[in-house]
Every structure is written in structure tokens, then in C-alpha cells.
Amino acid sequence: MEKFEVNILGCGSALPTTRHFPTSQVVNVRDKLFMLDCGEGAQLQFRKSHLKFSRLNHIFISHLHGDHCFGLPGLISSFDLLGRTSDLHIYSPKGLEELFAPLLGYFCRGMGYRVLFHTFDTHDAAQIYEDRSLTVTTLPLRHRVPCCGFLFAEKPRLNHIVREQIERYDVPMYELSRIKNGADYCMPDGQVIPNSLLTRPADPPRRYAYCSDTICLPELIPALTGVDLLFHEATFAESELPRARETFHTTARQAAELARSAGVRQLLIGHFSARYEDETILLNEARQQFPNTLLAHESLCVSVE
Q: 125-128: long-range contacts at Cβ-Cβ below 8 A with a sequence spacing of 24 or more?
């Protein structure tokens, strides 16, 4: 199965602690890297995770709070110091380019590559990225500022060739592309070999959903239904529900209830409040509602399966 992994670079919230870095993740799809949010220290954690800077060309910023984007200027500068020449694409709600233009103009003048900013609407879901194997769609969230999550979805893959059958019927190599796409094979004597004998179904496409920061939104359930891995913020324990509502955040219990209602395969919680020196309380509350829950931590790598 092709690589589809989520690497946690930081899973803390706004206030710094000695335990966690601010929010940042890297999604690795077939060794093509995509960054989700870029809090302070993201480039350091990137190095610690043994990921390659040269494979990162797309960064998605969920919203314009500092703990989700203060790491960008340093990362952009480091790329230039490393001699980068390929374009860097940054996707965000409106306003990021205007905020960072003075910083980049002062510290990153004359760079050897271009930084291209792309804005998206935070009110309606929309596809904002596509390549041969993947699409990225926004997930409108509700926070104190305009905010979106992101849904990474593999495209359906071609059927797998059954090598033994190809050899048995002496199928020429130039026919394999058609057969992978579902065609039958017509032998020189006119006999038709059905595709079902020559191939086996491809693995089902996988999906990863990223939701941070937001109040709990039941209206997300249709978009999240059946995803293989859901990351959802769990800033507070249930005892702090009033504070969660006040700050437009989610409790661990609420995140788990949402995962259960959407029928996701696995839940990963993060964006922990600095008040918790031990996040086990959050994990336990989530697992009471949704047992297949993981606790995010720096350097964690989770396969999307």
C-alpha cells in the first residue's frame, strides 16, 4: 500500500509549554509532503522527524492565529538559505499575504524562489488542491476568526494486475494500461478474457480529515462520515465545557462523540490547553465515547489505513 502518513510536529495550543510545540502537522502522501498549520518551532520539528524540506511544496493554514502561522517566516527564510528554487504554495483564509508581506520584504528580500499565496472562502467547502493521486477540500469550521479544516482524499486507484494470469494468456505489455483501467483482453483468436480474471480490485481510497480550531460542529458529520483518520482539536476536558464554548473550542468528549456519530475509523486528538500537565484525562474522556482514539504528541507518525 502506498504511503499515507500524518506526522505530528506540534499539538499544543496558544500558550507555550515545555511539553508541546504549537500546532503543525505534515501529511506524507507517496513522499509528497503537505504541511498543515505552521506554529513556532515547526521547522525544528520537521528536522527531528527526518522529513525532507525539498519535498514540501504546499502549506495549508487553517486560520490566522499566531500559534498556527508564526513559524512561517522562519521556514520560508530557511528554504532560501538551503538554495530552494521551486515555488512554495501557501493556502489560507484572506489576510495572510498582507500580514506577512512586510516581514518577507525585510527578511527574505531577493529570495531564489517564489512564495505564492492562495486564499479560500471559509464559509463553503471547496476543493483547493488536486494532483494525480489526491484532492484537498476545505472543511468550514467555527472559531473566533475565519477558520477551515482540510480533507485529504485519495483518488480511486487502478486495478492491480494479476501477473500469473497475464503470463498465462500471454498478454502483451502494451495492453496492460487498458486492462488496469478495466478493459477486457481480446486474444488473437478472438477469445475474450474478462478483466475480472486479469486484475484484482485496487485498495479503497483513503481519507484524512483535519479539524482545528473549532467548536463542536455536528454539521461536519456528512463530510467526515467514514474517514479513515480524523484529527480533531480537544483543547479542554469536559469540566471546562463553559470555557470551551467561550473560546470556541472543543472538549475531548465532544470530539469523540463527533467521531462516533460520523463513523470514522480512528480519532486523533490534539491542540491541548497548557493547563494540562498530563493529557491522559483528555484521552480517557474521549475513549469512553470512542475507544479507537489516539493522543497526539510530537514526533508521532500515524498511518492512514
A: 125/223, 128/60, 128/91
